[in-house]
Amino acid sequence: MQSSSPNWLRLVYKYKDDPDDSAAKLVARLPQYLSKGASALEIARNLQSKPDAVSAVLQELAEYDLVKVQASGLNVSFGDSLYSMTAEGMQFFKQMAMQGSRKS
Amino acid sequence: MSPWLAYLPVLMVAVFLNTADIYFMQSDRLPQLQRAPSYWLYMVGHALVGSGAAYLLYRKSGLEYSDWPVVTMVAALSGFSLLQSFSLKFGDKGIDARDLFDAWKRRVIEDVSQSNTSRKRERQMRIARQLTEKETRSPGRLDPAILQLAPSVQEDGEALLKKFAAGKYDSSLLKAQWIASVDLDFAESLAELP
Fold it and tell me: For chains A and B, what is the number of CB pairs under 8 angstroms?
């Protein structure tokens, strides 16, 4: 039986083929934060990145159901919400890690 | 030795090995594993596999209850390692226990991540509320903290303060939520200050 490819594979190839690999580098370091829940601001502080860049990546991952979003207060902006990893997300990050090791 | 006591170490080692496996797949120091229903289901599954293997070893291989250390290691490891890598394929069809256990484990991690995040969200909201009360009592009290934290997220502190003041929501709440979102431990220490 041939299993269908997950739709997040196109995201893996997008990051892999991106000549500016800053987003791919960011994605590679996300799992350690997402398994305990983290805001884009917290991740940005830890990774010395801009919150907007982190938010953009997380928003993209959320569109593919690779992360879940939980609002952490009233009237919070997207960057202040907490993000956690989904089961699909784990597969995605594993695939990204494999692509990264092949690239290097 | 009581037969029940001979099975107890198998259950304990099976639960320990699989809990350690799950623990090291996530990054929270003290995850609330017990709050994830799929964790318990996963442990029950492994306990059953371990008990089944121990039953076969005691009943069919002639091992005595006094051989419990050997049975414990073999039975617990059979569930943890052998079964999880078992696959039997005929052409494209077959049983692949590895995929099944990987998917099950991912589900456990997802539940644990959700539980960790919910706990963190509750802590973040509680601390933000405490900071909001402090800021409401003496306006401007959180400003130095924002000016201090802003460079760590490559933001301009003064611009942030102006943005919060110009916003349509309560600026005290926005400031408190921002600090709690950037650095929760720092926010907690601020909330504890007299």
Answer: 109
Looking at this protein, which amino acid is placed at residue B144? P
Q: How far is CA A26 from CA A58, B37, B81, in A?
A: 10, 31, 33
d(CA B118, CA A13): 32
- Please tell me the total count of domains within chain B: 2
CA-nearest of B177, B170, B182, B175 to B144 is B175
Residue range of the domain that includes B15: 3-85
If we measure between CA atoms, which residue out of A48, A9, A92 comes closest to residue B182? Answer: A48
| Residue where the block lists tokens 């695939």 | A95
Please report which helix (H) or strand (E) contains residue B2, including its range: none
Q: Which of A76, A42, A81, A37 is nearest to A59 (CA)?
A: A81
Flag if B26 and A36 touch (Cβ within 8 Å).
yes
A 10 A CB-CB count for B185 gives 8
Q: Which of B109, B153, B181 sits opposite A35 (nearest CB)?
A: B109
In this prediction the ipTM stands at 0.80
- Which fold, A9-103? Arc Repressor Mutant, subunit A (1.10.10)
**CB within 8 A of A87, min separation 6: which ones?**
B103, B106, B107, B109, B110
| pLDDT per position as a tens digit, B133-189 | 999 998 888 999 999 999 999 889 999 999 888 877 888 989 999 999 999 999 999
CB B19 within 8 A of CB B43: yes
